[in-house]
Amino acid sequence: MNTYARPSVFIDGEAGTTGLGIRARLEALPVDVRSIDAARRKDPDARRDMMSAVDLVVLCLPDAAARDAVAMVDGLVTAGHRAPRVLDASTAFRTAPGWVYGFPEMQAQQAQAIRTATHVANPGCYPTGIIGLLHPLVAAGLVPADYPVTVNAVSGYSGGGRTMIEAHERDGGPAFELYGLSLQHKHLPEAQIYSGLSRVPVFVPSVGHFAQGMIVSIPLHLDLLGHGVRGADLHAALVAHYRGSDRISVPDACTSLCADTLAGTDRMELRVHVNEEQRQAVLTARLDNLGKGASGAAIQNIALMLGLESPSGM
Ligand SMILES: NC(=O)C1=CN([C@@H]2O[C@H](COP(=O)(O)OP(=O)(O)OC[C@H]3O[C@@H](n4cnc5c(N)ncnc54)[C@H](OP(=O)(O)O)[C@@H]3O)[C@@H](O)[C@H]2O)C=CC1
Ligand SMILES: CC(=O)N[C@@H](CCC(=O)OP(=O)(O)O)C(=O)O
Predict the structure, then answer these.
(1) What ipTM does this complex have?
(2) Ligand 1 geometric centre to CA of 126 (Å)
């Protein structure tokens, strides 16, 4: 930490969608947020100088710019200068060696790993739902690691950052669009690894003409799970895993779900919908892609990294 009483934070990409969300949430924490003059916000020298003066840098940048920023931090270390700890919101380092990935509720000891890491990768919005549902069930042996998982998901258009927001708000659509149909979405590696799956899931993302909100859904044939596994066992395992969390809840099943209900919050709801007669279940995660899927998760990780109490969730 520096000589200031309050830890200092620089958000590289402060003017972007995720950066603005983190900036707003940092107001609830006793930190000194430092900014670069808007005219120089992409100037490498200004960014490097700022990085060398703060305790934590939060990267809210496209992947290539995040890689450049991490190279700047590593360069400070190599040159023997004081270097900040790093929280990266991009996809660039989520499966990279030497980085701690994730959200504090992901597994026991995750919060402690984030607390002490120098480099933390914030999880992706879709993976937060996928891992949030599957990690506890795979770890409990209820879903086999080699289960042929399919994930269907819909996100609000803010998931595509400034460019997609401008396209939807200027042109009014499309109403609903499947994408990622080359089956190579950038979130697949983290979703597979941190869920504990041995097969790459089939992932069908989509985007709708609403600003914020997300549903991730995962259909399961119960007969392909462990012998005699019932929907109630899946629900009970999720309840046990997230007991005590103020942000992740496991409500009872419902018959319909709206994607934008949790918009503007940092919460996530996980459900198990079951038809025991047909031995079928659908797992669902509902969250705000910009909340628990991005800035809300980041603020929890920032608080852990700076040894501060997490602000109560929005
Ligand atoms: N939107 C979402 O739901 C989520 C996004 N993320 C991740 O967060 C990161 C940021 O995404 P998002 O906020 O949506 O994107 P935005 O496009 O809204 O914001 C990115 C910001 O970075 C700025 N920027 C680009 N290049 C540089 C550079 N070289 N130096 C300094 N600033 C730069 C952009 O400026 P300009 O606009 O002028 O180019 C913009 O202000 C991405 O990696 C994304 O994957 C993570 C979880 C969810
Ligand atoms: C609707 C939309 O385009 N969503 C983005 C995912 C959001 C994002 O960029 O986020 P992460 O940082 O969580 O990876 C996509 O599918 O590429």
Answers:
(1) 0.95
(2) 17
